[in-house]
Amino acid sequence: MLLAQRSGRIPGLPAAAQTANFCTMREAVEENGSPELYSPNPEVRGMTLLNREAFKRTVVVPVLKVKKEIVHALVKALKHTVLQRPGLKRVIEDPEDEGSKLVILDPHQVPEFSLGQAEQEVLKHLNIPPEVSRYNLELTYENFKSEEILRAVLPEGQDVTSGFSRVGHIAHFNLRDHQLPYKHLIGQVIIDKNPGITCVVNKTSIIDSTYRNFEMEVLAGESNLVTKVKENNISYELDFAKVYWNPRLSTEHGRIVELLKPGDVLFDVFAGIGPFAIPAAKKKCVVFANDLNPESYKWLLHNCKLNKVDNKIKAFNLDGRDFLLGPVREELSKALVLEKEAQKPAVHIVMNLPASALEFLDVFRHLLVGEPCGAAVLPTVHCYGFSKHENPAKEIQERAEASLGASLDGRCATYLVRNVAPNKEMLCISFQVPADVLYKRPCPAEGEEQPSRCTFCSFRPLLLCVNAVTAWH
């Protein structure tokens, strides 16, 4: 577990001692290293109720007896040989000599309590006797890492879960079946070994609800699930039991916001508590944010105020389809009557509901009515989806095309966001909505002549037929 490292040059030491680099020690670690220093008492195997006292054990470690005045020089010269273990002192008092100290060496680096030639050269240069002594070192629960504790407790050969998502003061696990009998012990160990974590939860259901939250069980600590997080230098507050938040999406949130320029328009269809919307507003974009979950909507408004962008974001509590057919269509219609292309801001539509967002793309079919204006800027959609296909990018594109009813060949880009589970990827497909998909051309009523062209925009008819859904003027 400790990797042998190359030693740096030490002024004043013989060249032989400096160039050895302890290469032979690396081999000794692999062949003869004892795992005892990293293993609790084996009697803790199968423990389900945490008993910290049961982890105690005594191990024999190599030590060097050194005069107090040269301890620092020795530790610096043998920095890769002395014990480097969090929570354990590497220099201790010599119970038999007040003028000396005991320097603990790493037993993995000093197999069979015998120093290598390079170390002996160092000792010779510092006038330190090369005798290695044995010392009984007591290890306690505090000296072991969480992964070592869990590996000692869970059945041999079983996977040990040491990774988790941290959301403020909450540690979030997805435990496997064989780990469930030890769930409360796991929770307490995580609290003990991670400062700042005061609550550990385990997901007990998949995200299949309308509001994208999931059931969870508190394994250890307090039951307070209202927490604070910071992502990309922006603070958010949320109730983790009632809204969706995934810290693994931080990079993706930043990537999309980086595409935006001040003055651009962002429609966030499934906004959650605002990880796309709020940084976009801070970037001086015009933002329309929506979420169907009343709790997400509540915390979205709260976080807008918290970050002082509540007057820059128009928030909605609608179904995503209703949001697209209502506010989005209305605002797009307004934006597209601008006369000069230079005045037209770029429009981005984010649809981060990977379980079903691709199914919403059919809304863009003839969303607007009229002739496509030559100067119009078509909206760019960033739509997320899950895929278990062997070619996930191709599969995501095909599903998007099926919803749009048009080909996206050469007109889209797919981006791998993250691996969700074995053989399950989360991707983002980005594309400009094709004009022939977005616009429904009006036709004159039967028996009527083609209406004259608009004096404001020569590309659009002044009047629309009675069958048109939306009038331009």
UniProtKB/TrEMBL annotation:
Main location: mitochondrion
GO BP of this protein: mitochondrial tRNA methylation; tRNA N1-guanine methylation
One Pfam family cited in the UniProt record for this chain: TYW2_N_2
Binding-site residues, S-adenosyl-L-methionine: 253, 291-292, 319-320, 352
Subcellular localization: Mitochondrion matrix; Nucleus; Cytoplasm
This protein's UniProt keywords: Cytoplasm, Methyltransferase, Mitochondrion, Nucleus, S-adenosyl-L-methionine, Transferase, tRNA processing
Catalytic activity, as annotated: guanosine(37) in tRNA + S-adenosyl-L-methionine = N(1)-methylguanosine(37) in tRNA + S-adenosyl-L-homocysteine + H(+)
InterPro entries to which the protein is assigned, alphabetical: MeTrfase_TRM5/TYW2 (IPR030382), SAM-dependent_MTases_sf (IPR029063), TRM5-TYW2-like_MTfase (IPR056743), TRM5/TYW2-like_N (IPR056744), tRNA_Gua_MeTrfase_euk (IPR025792)
Described function: Specifically methylates the N1 position of guanosine-37 in various cytoplasmic and mitochondrial tRNAs. Methylation is not dependent on the nature of the nucleoside 5' of the target nucleoside. This is the first step in the biosynthesis of wybutosine (yW), a modified base adjacent to the anticodon of tRNAs and required for accurate decoding. Involved in mitochondrial tRNA methylation. Specifically methylates the N1 position of guanosine-37 in various tRNAs. Methylation is not dependent on the nature of the nucleoside 5' of the target nucleoside. This is the first step in the biosynthesis of wybutosine (yW), a modified base adjacent to the anticodon of tRNAs and required for accurate decoding.
Oligomer and partners: Monomer.
Family note: Belongs to the TRM5 / TYW2 family.
Protein name in UniProt: tRNA (guanine(37)-N1)-methyltransferase
Organism: Anas platyrhynchos platyrhynchos
